[in-house]
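Write out the 3D structure for:
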Amino acid sequence: MPSRILVVDDEADLEQLVRQKFRRHIRENEFIFHFARSGVEALAKLSEEHDIDVILTDINMPEMDGLTLLSKLAGHEGVLKAIVVSAYGDMENIRTAMNRGAFDFVTKPIDLQDFETTILKALREAESIKSATRTREELVAIQRELNVATEIQLSMLPQTFPAFPDRVELDLHARMIAAKEVGGDFYDFFSIDDERIGVVIGDVSGKGVPAALLMAICRTLIRGTALEGGAPHECLAAVNNALAGEVVPGMFITVFYGVLHTRTGALEYCCAGHNPPYLASHDRVRALDSVGGLVVGAFAGWEYQSAKFDLKPGDLLFQYTDGVTEAKSVDDDDDFGEKRLEDCLADVNGHRAEQIVDKVVETVQTFSTGVPQADDITCLAIRYIGA
């Protein structure tokens, strides 16, 4: 786009001088000049032309002088840089002009080389301002889109609790806190039939928009496959085959998928590279056996395994992502770790699922006070009450 310059001077000779000096720039459509004979006429021009990059104005003019014009340009969005022209030695007016926002000045009689240098310098500064403005607008647009993406991602995760208001056999709560506007962690829970529910927690490698997109695809595939009623290892094998070869190299998903029989407490589960959940019973907290297989999406044809465990009334099943255990301390860069998580679960065992999730998140955040959150934090707690 050509640079636009408004020249304000009551002497007609200056217009001819400018056109002659910058004739090549004008011919090649690099510069477009507009001319006005007074400050009043300049303001009228500015009302018509909203994208003036530089204004060059004489100080001494009829109707409205250059100093008054400068004061009226203060809030004008179109003009990026102003240059004043004054008689040699008129330092008092030049100083006043600079105080009113002028970028630079030239003196009469005009030295054409200095005149060109000053114009080009002002145009470079004006382009820097425009570039910064464009960058800021792009960042604002990106932030707006990320805010929408955050709302979309959160809308994909179940947010209504109690999770199963018609099922008195269990108490379930979950929460995800993304490290960025959008994240790669996810959780899900759904009814498979009248007696079974599926629970899922997963962690996509990486962060940000790519991880969020893969998270959305994986969650949808797991739910769609799980609702067919197969065993957890069969479900994750099917999802793995669907994703293998389709995801970006180096990206993968760790997943825990369990099927809970709400009448009996029987739990069948599969850990695809994911941390096994913790079981908090009345007298101890321990991790279940890590049974399953490789992370999802790495290699097609991988065979997974399921394990079975019977929950007793009062037992708590706590699932989490590594954003919990790998949270850092500001003092010694220590991890939150499994031991602190176990101690936290022991302290809150017997509480409602929501209280347990909130307490774990609060404890992790307190531990990491002063350290930027580096990974998504996700927790899902199920208290099995029994039929």
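The mean pLDDT is 89.
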